[in-house]
Automatic annotation (TrEMBL):
An MF annotation (GO) of this entry: galactoside 2-alpha-L-fucosyltransferase activity
Taxonomic path: Eukaryota, Metazoa, Spiralia, Lophotrochozoa, Brachiopoda
Localization terms from the record: Golgi apparatus, Golgi stack membrane
Recorded topology in the membrane: Single-pass type II membrane protein
Assigned GO CC terms: Golgi cisterna membrane
EC code: 2.4.1.-
Entries under PANTHER family matching the protein: GALACTOSIDE 2-L-FUCOSYLTRANSFERASE, L-FUCOSYLTRANSFERASE
Pathway: Protein modification; protein glycosylation
One Pfam family in the UniProt entry: Glyco_transf_11
Keyword Amino-acid biosynthesis in annotation: no
Protein's name in the database: L-Fucosyltransferase
Main location: Golgi
Keywords: Glycoprotein, Glycosyltransferase, Golgi apparatus, Signal-anchor, Transferase, Transmembrane
Superkingdom to which the source organism belongs: Eukaryota
Length: 387
């Protein structure tokens, strides 16, 4: 009898797990906690797939983590941007990397083990993860604490071996959770974390440049691409320059252009943000650089390169095709100047470039939900030019 009961309990557990994994929740009928999660993640679809874990089926962080499976349209742009979150989802990266596991052990890290920890959870795509790392690192430094991560997701792409403590995920369960109120907005409360006298877990996307404004050179020095990524990016740029007809006109000024489309073109996202930057914006930004420099070559990276080929008619353009998102980011960052569109991937292309950056003044659109809720002066860098 006891054995039968155990088998019955096991079968029941399997059944409940199956239902939890594939349970579809209608947003309109969702409880307040799920509505809050969707709002903070800016997910626009009404139907969300939620994996409810046994122990924490309704906690904010667990739900956010699992909402990566949201049902976006499976376009090429979707695949492009989802690929950039491969490390954030904990899936192994098939690219060879110059960083071995031995480079990630605590014994090789420069830190003081007596310091308190600040930790962040990586979720979202590559641009989101870069914000979480940069902000988390700077917040930790400003509070004389260590940045502690249970997985160094970005080390396959960047040189992040130093000044990071690798800890077990179980250790974070004792950390005090400090939640970001809004996205993006600079949280003053993060400037005095020592008052809590404990380890801190920062809950949020942390998408505000003010978090790391006092550590800009430090952050940029850490966000140096791995050598193989630099080789791929430089090889593409140099080959394009070599075969460009612009060579006959003398020194070439390179300008990167990122065009974000993909899931951002959906009707629901447009309802939240307003229309995406159109060709009038890109043409105006290109004309701006052509008026300043005699010989300009534009490098275009996008999650919808076919759309770009149909719309960018200039002869002075090169399209980045068949590159991974991180190589595209490296290409854009290594041009002299950058024209960005929308999204955190675009933001980091501009920030890492070091040159002049142009961004769309009309995004998010006046009166849109994004424009009303977000503090964009904490998002767009003050030295960038709006057009």
């Amino acid at each position: 009898m006891a054995r039968r009961l155990r088998y019955f309990a096991l079968a029941l557990l399997v059944g409940v797990t199956y239902l939890a994994l594939f349970h579809t929740v209608n947003f309109q009928d969702s409880p307040e906690w799920l509505k809050e999660v969707q709002t903070n993640l800016d997910l626009s679809e009404e139907k969300l797939v939620v994996v409810k874990t046994k122990a924490r089926s309704r906690t904010y962080d667990s739900a956010v983590s699992q909402l990566r499976t949201a049902e976006f349209p499976r376009t090429d742009g979707y695949k492009y941007h989802r690929n950039s979150s491969r490390l954030a989802r904990g899936i192994s990266d098939p690219r060879p990397t110059s960083v071995g596991k031995e480079g990630l052990t605590q014994s090789n890290l420069t830190h003081n083990p007596t310091k308190r920890c600040v930790s962040v959870m990586f979720w979202g795509r590559l641009g989101n993860c870069l914000f979480q790392f940069a902000s988390g690192y700077a917040i930790a430094k400003s509070n004389a604490m260590d940045l502690c991560l249970h997985r160094s997701y970005l080390t396959s792409y960047f040189h992040l071996e130093k000044d990071i403590r690798i800890i077990e995920k179980a250790e974070m369960e004792t950390f005090k959770r400090v939640k970001e109120k809004q996205l993006p907005i600079h949280q003053q409360q993060f400037g005095n974390l020592k008052q809590f006298k404990t380890d801190i877990f920062l809950d949020g996307f942390l998408q505000a440049w003010r978090y790391f404004e006092n550590y800009e050179s430090d952050v940029k020095s850490k966000l140096r691409f791995q050598d193989d990524i630099i080789r791929d990016a430089d090889s593409f740029i140099n080959s394009s320059l070599k075969h460009s007809s612009n060579n006959a006109r003398g020194k070439i000024t390179t300008v990167g252009i990122h065009v974000r489309r993909g899931d951002m073109t959906s009707e629901n996202m447009v309802a939240l943000t307003g229309p995406l930057p159109d060709m009038a914006y890109f043409n105006s930004a290109m004309a701006h650089f052509q008026s300043k420099y005699k010989n300009v070559l534009f490098f275009i990276a996008s999650d919808d390169i076919d759309w770009c080929k149909r719309n960018f008619k200039s002869k002075n353009v090169v399209f980045s095709e068949k590159h991974s998102p991180v190589v595209d980011l490296a290409i854009l960052s290594r041009t002299n100047h950058v024209i960005i569109s929308v999204g955190t991937f675009s933001w980091w292309a501009g920030y890492l470039s070091g040159g002049e950056v142009v961004y769309p003044k009309k995004w998010p659109a006046e009166g849109s939900i994004y424009q009303r809720r977000l503090k964009m002066q904490d998002y767009y860098y003050p030295t960038w030019k709006s057009m």
